[in-house]
Design goal:
With 257 residues, the chain is α/β, with parallel strands linked by helices. It has ten helices and ten strands. Strands 6-7-8-3-9-10 form a six-stranded mixed beta sheet, with helices on both faces. Strands 2-1-4-5 form a four-stranded antiparallel beta sheet, covered by helices on one side. The chain is globular and about 55 Å long. About 2% of the residues have low confidence.
Length: 257
């Protein structure tokens, strides 16, 4: 049997008569990179907001490691090990790269959000912070203000701060959005690298990225699961082709790992 880390059962979100997410049954296997894809307005980000409890489901269940977390609050979800990065790079612009990662590590000291703590008390975290920066290829940027980083490097920093919170499940929301080809390649390789020993659920528009690194893909359309499987399986699915291209003769084969 598959080792399922995250499961949803008939997960549904309605807004004043509009159903944004409709009876979504999702199973994310431990150790996989699992992608949520679909046309604009398919319900992908709403689904993420439900999983991290920034939205409350209208009905349905969310289970994490077999435990029902449907009623949990966002902070509880994060403490359980479900950590999300956002579509828009979420870093502190006037802090250095090292300081950003160190804030993520403060959880270990039990001093989260205590910005008035002396830098001396936080210094003990520097070694771990530098190791995380090395993991994402940012060690040479440790003293750089994060506002001065190129866009792709900011996304790498965001992944480092996400890793600092020791996620059991990482949720990446459009990690390559707005990037040029070189940055897309760098961040894709980074996701592949940091996925070792971790589980990642990601929303992603770039089909080359999805084809290259994802073990399993769920396709959403109008809030419902249209298809699920490997990239090769969903790329051949006539319903998926039609949803993306408006014709069953077109498809996703244009993307190559």
């Amino acid at each position: 049997m598959a080792d399922v880390i995250l499961e949803t059962r008939q997960l549904t979100k309605e807004f004043k008569g509009f159903t944004a997410v409709s009876d979504v049954d999702l199973q994310v296997e431990r150790g996989h990179i699992h992608a949520l894809i679909g046309p604009n307005g398919a319900g992908k980000t709403t689904c993420f907001n439900l999983l991290t409890k920034f939205l409350v489901p209208t009905r349905g269940q969310i289970l994490f490691n077999g435990r029902d977390i449907t009623a949990a609050r966002p902070a509880q979800i994060a403490r359980m090990g479900i950590i999300r990065s956002f579509q828009i790079s979420a870093v502190f612009p006037h802090m250095t790269v090292l300081e950003n990662v160190r804030i993520g590590l403060q959880r270990q000291l039990g001093t989260s959000y205590h910005f008035w703590r002396s830098t001396q008390s936080l210094g003990q975290l520097d070694e771990r912070a530098l190791a995380l920066l090395a993991e994402v290829g940012l060690e040479s940027f440790a003293t750089t203000l994060s506002s001065d980083l190129p866009y792709g490097r900011k996304r790498a920093l965001e992944i480092a701060t996400t890793l600092a919170m020791e996620p059991e499940l990482m949720l990446l929301d459009e990690p390559t959005q707005g990037m040029g080809h070189e940055d897309v390649h760098r961040v894709t390789e980074l996701i592949k690298k940091v996925s070792a020993g971790r589980t990642i659920l990601m929303v992603e528009h770039n089909m080359n990225v999805v084809a290259g690194i994802c073990d399993r893909i769920s396709v959403l359309q109008r809030g419902a699961v249209l298809a699920e499987g490997t990239y090769a399986e969903v790329a051949r699915n006539p319903q998926v082709m039609e949803a993306y291209m408006g014709t069953s003769d077109a498809g996703l084969e244009g993307a190559h790992p």
